[in-house]
Structures are given as C-alpha cells and as structure tokens.
Write a structure and sequence with these properties.
- The structure holds 2 protein chains of 2 kinds.
- Helices cover 73% and strands 0% of the residues of chain A.
- The N terminus of chain B is likely disordered.
- Chain B is mainly alpha-helical.
- Chain B contains 10 helices and no strands.
- The chains are: A mainly alpha, B mainly alpha.
- Chains A and B meet through helix 1, helix 3 and helix 4 of A and helix 2, helix 3, helix 6, helix 7 and helix 8 of B.
C-alpha cells in the first residue's frame, strides 16, 4: 500500500504532468481509504487554482512606482533616446 | 523630415509607456518578485528592451500586452539566473528546502490536513486579504522554492518549459514543487483557513 508521503508526491506531480497508469491506480486505491490525503488533494486543487488565478492578475493593489523610481527610469530612457536608441 | 518618418517616433515614445503603463508593469512585477527595488529594475529593463526592440512590435497586440510579454521574459530571465546561482549552494539550500516535513517515520501525516471545504474558493479569491495571505506565504518559502513555484504559474508555463528555463531535470522540479506546495498548504491552513498551529517544524 502506498504511503501518505508517496501519495502526496504523486498528487503534486499529477498537477504538472501525467502519472503512469500504474501510479494513478495506486494513488486512486490509496485515496479510497485515506481521508487525510483526500483533504490534501482538495487543498492542492485550490492552491493550484489560486496560483493560476494569481498569474493573470497584476497584483490588485494600490502599489505605484515611487516618484524617485519613475524619475530615474525616465532619465535613463531620455538618455537612450538622446543616444538614438 | 517627412510626416511618414515622424510617425514611428511619435508612436514609440517610451516616456509615454512609462506614463501609461509604468504602474501596471510595476504591480505585475511586484506580484512576482516581491521586492520593490527588483520590481523597479524590471520595469526599467522592460521599457529599455521594448525601445530597443520597437521594430518587433507588430501592432497586432495592444501596447500593454506587448510590454507585459517583454516583462514576463525579463522575470523568467531573472529567475533563471537566480535559481542557477542558488543551485551552486545546493547542500545547505537543499536541506533547508526539505526541512519542513509533515510526515512521521511511518510516512503518515503527523497532523491531518485541515478541511478547506467550509469556504467558497471563488469568494476567497475575490478578497484582497486572501491574496495578501497568499503572498505572505510565498514570501516565507525558501528562495529557490519561491522562484520555481512562481515561475511554474507565471503565464501558466508548462513544467517542461520551466525545466528548460531553469536547467532542471523533471525530477528536480517535481521535488521542489512538491516541497513548495506542502509548505503553501500548511501556511494557508494556518493563516487563512484557521487551522491551529501545528507542533514541530514550521512551514
């Protein structure tokens, strides 16, 4: 019987690629009997979903470039424009 | 100079990019690298690269999506460099990354993972506090795990692409992502889903 340690590894790997049929079967059998790993699977699914969602959004905050950074970047761009690119 | 020759210059003025998209690019970068000065440098490098590569702008995409694509490449380049540098300090780094172990000697969970089912995930994801917690948990990951995890989800890169970008074998990558996920699950359980802090190694 697959250990919880190995089952958790396979649950993670399944998010990044395909498991071999035998690996999937072993995992399935383990999950039938193991409540804690079923919970972990649920956690992983939500973490995965949230992480993908996070990738789409430019952090929805009020963060802005500071005036000093903006000035510095503008200065460097000016310099490149003056040098002709 | 004729009007025709003037046109590209007027259309490609990086100073207007900074004005129109600077804050957006900054926030996008900050969501991934979490350090103000690094995010600022990324914006600067992006605008410079865009200016130098302005002939490659086809006009088929919007200015912002074009700039964002360049920024994403810059973030990948940065992570690739960082992960490779960190790979040379491997033994200590590897021990730190593997230090959080929620399994006992029999390979059973030391503590049953908490039930996240009581909330509505979509509802959680609409709340700014959730993302603040998510980012705080990301910040707590050891540096290399953080970079690998963020890169995996940047633009939904496939695992194969991440391996190629970082010069890792698939097995290396799976181990690192697995370790990052165990820690993220623990951290979100404790800080968002209200599980009591567990004894033993901290995640």
């Amino acid at each position: 019987m697959l250990s919880c340690r190995r089952a958790s590894e396979r649950l993670s790997r399944a998010l990044d690629g395909k498991l071999a049929p035998g690996e999937r079967l072993g995992l399935w059998a383990h999950l039938l009997l193991c409540g804690p790993c079923c919970r972990y699977r649920k956690q992983l699914r939500m973490l995965h979903e949230a992480s993908m969602h996070n990738a789409d959004r430019a952090a929805n905050t009020d963060d802005r470039l500071s005036e000093s950074a903006r000035g510095r970047i503008a200065g460097i761009l000016e310099q490149h424009l003056a040098d002709g690119g | 100079m004729t009007q025709q020759e003037m046109k590209p210059l007027a259309a490609f003025d990086p100073r207007t990019w900074l004005e129109r998209h600077g804050d957006y690019l900054y926030r996008f970068a900050l969501g991934r690298v979490r350090t103000t000065s690094v995010a600022e440098d990324l914006v600067q490098e992006t605008l410079l690269a865009a200016w130098q590569g302005r002939d490659g702008f086809s006009g088929s995409s919007t200015e912002r999506s074009w700039l964002t694509a360049i920024l994403k490449r810059k973030i990948v380049d940065l992570f690739r460099k960082r992960v490779r540098e960190q790979a040379t300090l491997s033994p200590a780094g590897d021990a730190e990354e593997g230090a959080y172990d929620p399994f006992d000697r029999g390979s059973h969970w030391k503590k049953t993972p908490s039930d996240w089912g009581h909330g509505n995930p979509a509802e959680d994801m609409n709340r700014a506090e959730f993302w603040a917690t998510m980012h705080a948990c990301l910040d707590k990951l050891p540096p290399r795990l953080q970079d690998v995890f963020v890169l995996r989800y940047l633009d939904e890169q496939s695992a194969a692409e991440v391996c190629k970008d970082l010069g890792l074998t698939p097995t290396n990558l799976w181990v690192m992502l697995h370790r990052a996920r165990l820690r993220m699950s623990c951290c979100l359980s404790e800080n968002w889903f209200g599980a009591t802090k567990r004894e033993g190694p901290s995640c």
